[in-house]
Recover the amino acids of this structure.
């Protein structure tokens, strides 16, 4: 089976471009050019140079000795948290800002949930001297204050999304509306592996550097390129897409996704899309999404702003439906406990989003010889207030 | 394919089409609003099926959609409200909404219900031309529903020709690069866009939407086009005056 996007952007039955005509010229321009542009020598050279000198890649693949002892398997951490700006998001924004320049765009818009993508976008806009507007849900602005401040310091304008649930989904709606209103000079840097084709595929390709590096790094450490499992948390699914990409067609590699169960999958306050969703259309693509029987998109919940999204990228819907990936979900409490455990066993405070991936050990027992690579997608600095409140650290 | 829309398009007049969100301002006045609009000389009606995430709409229609959903509007409720509508009105009726609610209802079941009620056409902004043609055109035709496509000032000439070929009622000509309800007045840019489209001599008549709110903008929009659609301005009127003053609104336009 093929797990990549076909020419029309479908992963099995999922994907496509369900967009209003107003977006057609921009999306079509991108669709026709993205593959050609991103594999030009000059593009690759600039992209790789920036990833190396500016982002600090390759990010280490770290053998987590104490965590391994605790959970009885060989655990490696892919340290995306050590990237400049503190998460995997910057891999994609570097790629997309170069793409925007090639397409002659001068104004950048983005949506953000936890603020990591907003910061990564504001960063590359500062780097390239481009105007930057970031849409962020009003609720997320309140719970991610440090990232809002960072975006502002980087020169971006942060516009609150005040409609609907006032979180990531609504910020995405607002960004799309901005793009409709500014069809000529603006490029929309989508931060996750969602949206109309070619976004899911383009974002996945930019993030695929994660699994590309894991391959040669694991070869150095274990004498083999393929681990037994790769594990990532999933909201829209960009870090997961990048972590899985080069293993999708390696059947011996188990693919594991951990979604946010919020207060419990059946609590009514959850973001576990694979368990709760049905096939539908959100933000321009056909995918699994949480909705009412009437087709209204429901408001998800997670303690982590970055996983608080009612859909999942079309690639992941396909991985779920086809059985290629195992899907689990971790509650707020499990994710927080896993974050604390990682902090105290390895001296690494993860983002709460990332904490969900580490909660896999609550749900799956690995064998002693299993080599398990976990995507440590982001660092926890931005979440300190939430950790302080939750663990009563102050 | 011919129905009430195509007959209306043949009348020798500029058409005034009104959009409203079903279930707004109150849940159960859908039929009353339709009857009043017909009585006051409106030519065509777009009944908005509200959606939680209307990404081509500005704040006015977003807010009316949120309120309508809160009032309890659903696809099923709307179909029930409309089941006897053809006993009282003969005006062309179009359902305008986003694709996901239709997909969840079942595309064929939705179309069948529309035919039973006497709906003449559909406008689904996020169901693009190629997907429609590949997957759904046959179903729409089977139930006698016209499908209306949008064009914008950025739509290329080649694509406009393609949309013209695929259209069987009218083309919804979006006046400017914007979501609904966001521009005030038409300028030079719109005028030259209207003229450019007129000069293409399309087979399908065009009806202009987005940004029409009064006599002046209606006149400008219909100088070359067959008609104009008003949405946000009518919703604002409903918000301010309730459902009893439709005549006042129509009189403001012509």
């Amino acid at each position: 089976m093929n797990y990549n996007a076909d020419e029309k952007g479908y992963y099995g039955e999922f994907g496509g471009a369900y967009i209003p005509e107003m977006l057609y010229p921009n999306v079509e321009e991108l669709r026709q050019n993205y593959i050609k542009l991103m594999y030009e020598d000059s593009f690759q050279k600039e992209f790789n140079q920036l990833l190396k000198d500016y982002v600090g890649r390759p990010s280490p693949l770290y053998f987590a000795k104490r965590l391994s002892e605790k959970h009885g398997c060989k655990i490696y951490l892919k340290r995306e948290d050590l990237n400049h700006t503190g998460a995997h998001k910057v891999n994609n924004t570097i790629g997309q800002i170069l793409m925007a320049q090639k397409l002659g765009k001068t104004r950048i818009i983005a949506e953000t949930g936890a603020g990591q993508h907003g910061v990564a976008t504001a960063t590359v806009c500062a780097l390239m001297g481009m105007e930057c507007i970031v849409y962020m849900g009003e609720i997320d602005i309140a719970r991610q204050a440090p990232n809002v401040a960072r975006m502002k310091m980087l020169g971006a304008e942060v516009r609150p999304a005040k409609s609907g649930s006032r979180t990531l989904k609504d910020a995405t709606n607002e960004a799309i509306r901005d793009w409709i209103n500014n069809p000529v000079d603006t490029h929309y840097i989508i931060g996750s592996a969602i949206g109309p084709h070619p976004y899911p595929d383009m974002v996945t390709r930019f993030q695929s550097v994660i699994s590309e590096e894991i391959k040669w790094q694991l070869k150095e450490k274990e004498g083999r390129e393929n681990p037994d499992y790769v594990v990532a948390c999933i909201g829209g699914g960009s870090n997961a897409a990048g972590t899985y990409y080069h293993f999708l067609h390696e059947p011996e590699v188990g693919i594991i996704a951990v979604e946010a169960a919020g207060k419990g999958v059946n609590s009514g306050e959850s973001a576990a899309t694979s368990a709760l969703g049905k096939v539908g259309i959100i933000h321009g693509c056909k995918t699994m999404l949480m909705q009412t029987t009437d087709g209204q998109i429901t408001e998800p919940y997670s303690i982590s702003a970055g996983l608080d999204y009612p859909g999942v990228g079309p690639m992941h819907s396909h991985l779920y439906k086809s059985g290629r990936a195992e899907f689990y979900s971790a509650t707020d409490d499990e994710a927080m406990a896993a974050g604390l455990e990682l902090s105290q066993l390895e001296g690494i405070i993860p983002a709460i989003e990332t904490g969900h991936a580490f909660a896999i050990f609550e749900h799956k027992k690995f064998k002693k010889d299993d080599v398990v690579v976990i995507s440590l997608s982001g660092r926890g600095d931005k979440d300190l207030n939430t950790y302080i409140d939750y663990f009563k650290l102050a | 394919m011919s129905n009430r829309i195509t007959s209306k398009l043949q009348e020798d007049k500029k058409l005034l089409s009104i959009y409203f969100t079903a279930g707004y301002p109150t849940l159960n006045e859908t039929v009353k609003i339709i009857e009043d609009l017909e009585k006051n000389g409106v030519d065509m009606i777009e009944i908005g099926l509200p959606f939680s995430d209307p990404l081509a709409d500005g704040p006015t229609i977003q807010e009316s959609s949120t309120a309508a959903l809160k009032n309890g509007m659903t696809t099923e409720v709307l179909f029930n409200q409309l089941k006897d509508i053809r006993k009282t009105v003969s005006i062309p009726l179009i359902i305008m909404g986003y694709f996901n609610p239709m997909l969840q209802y079942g595309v064929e079941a939705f179309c069948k219900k529309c035919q039973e009620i006497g709906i003449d056409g559909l406008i689904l902004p996020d169901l693009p031309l190629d997907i429609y043609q590949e997957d759904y055109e046959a179903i729409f035709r089977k139930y006698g529903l016209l499908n209306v496509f949008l064009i914008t000032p950025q739509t290329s000439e080649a694509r406009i020709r393609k949309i013209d070929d695929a259209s069987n009622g009218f083309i919804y000509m979006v006046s400017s690069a914007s979501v609904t309800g966001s521009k005030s007045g038409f300028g030079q840019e719109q005028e030259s866009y209207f003229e450019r489209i007129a000069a293409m001599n399309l087979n399908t008549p065009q009806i202009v939407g987005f940004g029409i709110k009064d006599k002046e903008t209606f006149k400008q929009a219909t100088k070359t086009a067959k008609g104009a659609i008003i949405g946000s301005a009518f919703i604002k009127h409903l918000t301010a005056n309730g459902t009893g003053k439709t005549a006042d609104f129509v009189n403001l336009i012509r």
Chain A has two domains: 23-50+89-203, 57-86+208-391.
